[in-house]
Amino acid sequence: MKRYFQFDELGTNYKREFIGGLTTFLSMAYILFVNPSVLSLSGIPDLPDAMRMDQGAVFTATAIAAAVGSLIMGILAKYPIALAPGMGLNAFFAFTVVLTYGVPWETALSGVLVSGLIFIVLTLSGIREKIINAIPAELKFAVAAGIGLFIAFIGFQSAGIIVNNDAVLVGLGNLTSGNTLLAIFGLIVTVILMVVGVNGGIFYGMLITAAAGMMTGLIDLPSAVVGTPPSLEPTFGAAFANFGEIFTIQMLVIILTFLFVDFFDTAGTLVAVANQAGLIKNNKLPRAGKALFADSSATVVGAVLGTSTTTSYIESSAGVAAGGRSGFTSVVTAGFFLLALFFSPLLGVITAPVTAPALIIVGILMVSALGKIAWDQFEIAVPAFLTIVAMPLTYSIATGIAIGFIFYPITMIAKGRSKEIHPIMYGLFVIFILYFVFLVGGE
């Protein structure tokens, strides 16, 4: 095994790899509780039960998808990169596709499944690089930053810090409410943990917030800590139930959004973590195809189990910082995700005020992409800004992407930079125009 994972070549050992895998798990364990909360729309009151995914089933699907994805990444691609259902993509799934568009979550899972299958085909055919390179870097950064603002906005709503205001759309909530105060406390604690550099700060922040909620009576004590993993029956195979309903302009845009964001997340994470671990050779990423295959196949597995898009996690950098260098780090992380299956009773104490700080912090981390955009070039600034600001204001990641991708060719042509526009961008321009004409215009 040491020879397979190249321990000697990478200067590592079992102890370092185990610590790296555990550190990565603790850094991303929050997704086990945040993902069920997001996909069940737990922070949105008065919704029909049919719109909410079963939290227990999503918890199990999240853990298994993360374990399978991390195992494939570790064993096949041999990278110390773990996978799990992605933040941002789960928000798009729940708040845009299901809540705003009214698409059944079963159909949304079908969209995730198809995006994963397309990703596999693009990976095996080698077309993936052409598509990634066709999207200008500035729009990739804008998409990441816009999703960050959108996630943070959802977090502020879940916390009760931002509420509906009929006069001005949104306003400040009741900061004296017990649950809102608990969320604010959690945000402060998590920020402090992150600032002082605690690995797994988001996860520990959730634990401390939940403990404070139980001590103050705002959260009921759990009936148990360890229990049998929840059944997958409510979600398993649901992606096949409404498969025939994906052949519409609306679902095409949804599938493209799943695909694009997963592309950006994966490519960025692979390069960042591999570079940190010293795995990039001659400015190239070895086994990149295998790493992307691991990501895309994990998405397919996750969709069948019952969760939104599974993707590579930048939190893997914490494990690399702790010493992880080989794929065995990801294998260790996968083992901890499987072990976590037996702690499902804790789902009951991870309420909206507990997950809200995590959403806000993840939003802050994603908005760092703003600094990489060339704001001094107006033809770049316009589509980037519209992409970013439209996501939270329209409550739709897809709409933000559509607006930005429509304005980019317009501003670049007006500036006389039409030769820099890839033909694929013109195709996307047409698709997103049709999106507004047939989907938004018909509402």
Automatic annotation (TrEMBL):
<feature type="transmembrane region" description="Helical">
    <location>
        <begin position="175"/>
        <end position="196"/>
    </location>
</feature>
<dbReference type="InterPro" id="IPR045018">
    <property type="entry name" value="Azg-like"/>
</dbReference>
<feature type="transmembrane region" description="Helical">
    <location>
        <begin position="203"/>
        <end position="226"/>
    </location>
</feature>
<dbReference type="InterPro" id="IPR026033">
    <property type="entry name" value="Azg-like_bact_archaea"/>
</dbReference>
<keyword id="KW-0813">Transport</keyword>
<dbReference type="InterPro" id="IPR006043">
    <property type="entry name" value="NCS2"/>
</dbReference>
<feature type="transmembrane region" description="Helical">
    <location>
        <begin position="139"/>
        <end position="163"/>
    </location>
</feature>
<feature type="transmembrane region" description="Helical">
    <location>
        <begin position="326"/>
        <end position="347"/>
    </location>
</feature>
<keyword id="KW-1133">Transmembrane helix</keyword>
<feature type="transmembrane region" description="Helical">
    <location>
        <begin position="56"/>
        <end position="76"/>
    </location>
</feature>
<dbReference type="GO" id="GO:0005345">
    <property type="term" value="F:purine nucleobase transmembrane transporter activity"/>
</dbReference>
<feature type="transmembrane region" description="Helical">
    <location>
        <begin position="381"/>
        <end position="411"/>
    </location>
</feature>
<feature type="transmembrane region" description="Helical">
    <location>
        <begin position="423"/>
        <end position="441"/>
    </location>
</feature>
<keyword id="KW-0472">Membrane</keyword>
<comment type="similarity">
    <text>Belongs to the nucleobase:cation symporter-2 (NCS2) (TC 2.A.40) family. Azg-like subfamily.</text>
</comment>
<feature type="transmembrane region" description="Helical">
    <location>
        <begin position="83"/>
        <end position="102"/>
    </location>
</feature>
<protein>
    <submittedName>
        <fullName>NCS2 family permease</fullName>
    </submittedName>
</protein>
<feature type="transmembrane region" description="Helical">
    <location>
        <begin position="354"/>
        <end position="375"/>
    </location>
</feature>
<dbReference type="Pfam" id="PF00860">
    <property type="entry name" value="Xan_ur_permease"/>
</dbReference>
<keyword id="KW-1003">Cell membrane</keyword>
<feature type="transmembrane region" description="Helical">
    <location>
        <begin position="21"/>
        <end position="44"/>
    </location>
</feature>
<feature type="transmembrane region" description="Helical">
    <location>
        <begin position="246"/>
        <end position="271"/>
    </location>
</feature>
<keyword id="KW-0812">Transmembrane</keyword>
<dbReference type="GO" id="GO:0005886">
    <property type="term" value="C:plasma membrane"/>
</dbReference>
<feature type="transmembrane region" description="Helical">
    <location>
        <begin position="108"/>
        <end position="127"/>
    </location>
</feature>
